[in-house]
Known about the structure:
Blueprint: H1 3-14, H2 32-37, E1 55-60, H3 66-79, E2 88-92, H4 97-110, E3 113-115, H5 127-136, E4 144-148, H6 159-174, E5 178-184, H7 202-206, E6 209-219, E7 222-231, E8 239-245, H8 252-258, E9 260-261, H9 264-295, H10 301-312, H11 316-325, E10 337-341, E11 347-351
Helix pairs in contact: 3-8, 5-6, 9-10, 9-11, 10-11
Amino acid sequence: MTMLDRAAQLAAEQLDGQQPFSLDQFALNGHAETMEAKMQEDKFILGRLAILGQSTVFYAKPNAGKTLLTVWLLIEAIKAGEIEPTHVFYVNADDNHKGLAFKLRLAEQYGFRMLAPGYNGFEAKMLPSYLGSMVHDDQAMGKILVLDTVKKFTDLMSKGKSSAFSEVVRQFVMHGGSVIMLAHVNKHRDEEQRVVYSGTSDLVDDCDCAYTLDLVTEEMGRRTAKFENLKNRGDVALEAVYEYDASEGLSYRERLESIRPVSDAERHQAEKRRMMADRLERNREAVDAIKSCLRDGICKKTELIVEAKSRAVVSRQKIERALKEHTGSSPSSHEYWHLEVADKNAHIYKLNWGGG
């Protein structure tokens, strides 16, 4: 007996003595007015990164600031009257006791609900059941659920489990709820040096909106972090950049109070600084070898490339790239030498003042 035959047999047994099976029993026709009355306007709930009535995922590496920024955005939305704090349920499943206690104090101050596995009978493994009950009892409408982090509630490496969990979230969202999920990225970046989300693609495939969060710069204890959109439904921001103080010794509240949005001009400057820093790190061996050669008076291009290659034990291509990328007049921009064209078109390199 095929699976199709068995399914038909089971359906016949269940409907013995009843009308023939039909999908008509599941049709929503006639409920349009009721559903329209429950429709929510497109309303932002975390800056311009998440919309009420959608599921959103933030992917970031540890210590990039995903929890800090999420909590700050949540509090800012509450202070602005954009969301009802008693409708927000922050599930803190990735913290120690001290961290939980402080965030609980914030929750009490601003009126949102703080939940944690192991307290008051809450169990992470029961979350799908809890959400199912809210859907069944028509209690999902307007509720905002933050899951920190989502790996505590499902196995992101399992396609089957991730897909099943995403279906539970989708049912909650379809009945008017909102879900914000925090998740991690892989250890290794892609070819363009961007962070890559961890786990199977199911969470991204099934959510409404997804972002990666990455550090753009970290200078003098201050970090600049950028949300970059991977997927969207609605007029959410494609990018959003924030700066915060990550200096040692600061309290969590002091870090929260240090957060500020970064303008486009500031963001471009921060990204430029990061690009230059990344370039220097990539070329460091070659740069050190070229500097050493120039200090020893080896400055003609051909001889310089040959000797620098010998001293750095790197490829000729890397020496030539470093020589080109760090030529200029601004040591603060990692331009350590400049080029002069002498007689017979000889290319002579000289160290900049302060570049050696």
